[in-house]
Amino acid sequence: MRDFPRAARRAGAMAAATALAGTAFSGTAFSGTAFGGTVFSSTVFSGTVFSGTVFSGTAPAGTAPPRRPPAWCKPGGTLSARAMPQRVKIADCDLRGRTVRGANGLVAVVPSDGTSLVAHEIRTDGGAELRIAVDPRAGEITVGTDGGRVPQGRPRGFRAPAAACEDGVHRAEPSRWPKGATVQWRYYAGTAGLPVEPIAKAISNMVGARTDCNGEGRFAVPPDVGERNAGQADRAPNITGGATCGNRDRVNTFGWHAMPDAGRDVLAASCTWFDGPTTVETDMALQAQGKRWWTSGSCPAGSYSAEAVATHEAGHVLGLAHVEGTEHENLTMAPSIASCDDGPATLAKGDYDGLIALYGGR
Question: Does 221 reside within a domain?
């Protein structure tokens, strides 16, 4: 506000008094505190207006002073999940719409539409998981992150891998599709000219319970969930060039996506949005830049099985989480895949048991 001379302000007040005398704003209005001292006397607006002191520098009675955000809640940029408490009060730091970084550099945008999110990466040397549960009713957001690296050599406490057809360990995500649902997805080809077949086979491997554990090639009773390719997608999965889960668009999109800003060891990323216990959208992207992919025939040295990687990601789509530990490395849901390893394209016992626990038998 400009600093007008006191004489001018006094003249303006007298003019207002002449214009509005007697009838307007009679009685006492806004009594209490304002602007330190008496601002308008009883000669203005006939009666006492703004009597006393206003804005004296103290909050009105019964009003708590505004909270100062915690030190880790910086106003801009990416926030670290490791620096914040597991449960964050929205009143202390509203994470909705903010970007959060978890283990192994895994990043996601906290949903602002009331849904929650689980993000995953699978790497050549390990994996990562970032879980973000938004509870508007409780006024809080819960953030958890896990990640590991494949140990070099034989680490202390090493346990030999269990046989794939005997290892029944599995972990579930916070959500799943409704039992009996058909998950409709669209395919995004990207710009590298890579084929749809490995991704389509991968989804089928999961819902059809494909395995090498018997002579039939499939477990006897598949899980009670289906899938359908609904055609080409007109845009990429909601996963950025840094393998960050962005904002959902209510379309399940699976395919190839260039992620130049992701870590050099990242093979694929997936994002699952859910409301309560129910999954509402999933996106999956295989790294189309800087990776050599094995899609048919014999495996060229240093290449990765597209079908095996996509089958692992399809497990996340259906609600399976990573299973850590060298003793479980023969599971499809182990969080790393070596070059020319197509074993994860077929389900181990634990992968199948996890699906049946989620969906029952068809």
Answer: yes
Q: How many domains does the chain have?
A: 2
pLDDT in tens, 111-123: 999 999 999 999 9
Q: Phi, psi at residue 89, to the nearest 5°? A: -75, 130
- Regarding whether 179 and 123 lie in a shared domain, the answer is yes
Residue 68: pLDDT band by 50, 70, 90 thresholds?
confident
Q: Same structural domain for residues 188 and 112?
A: yes
CA angle 44–46–49, rounded 5-degree value: 65
Which residue's entry shows tokens 């029952």? 360
The Cα–Cα gap between 309 and 347 comes to: 12
**Do residue 251 and residue 359 come from a single domain?**
yes
Q: Model pTM?
A: 0.80
> In terms of domains, do 245 and 302 share one?
yes
The parent domain of residue 16 ranges over: 6-54
Alpha helices by DSSP H, 284-348: 306-318
Alpha helices by DSSP H, listed for the chain, are 6-20, 197-207, 306-318, 349-359
Q: What is the CATH number of the domain that holds 132?
A: 3.40.390.10
Whether the per-residue pLDDT at 127 is higher than 70: the answer is: yes
Q: Could you say which DSSP state residue 196 is in?
A: S
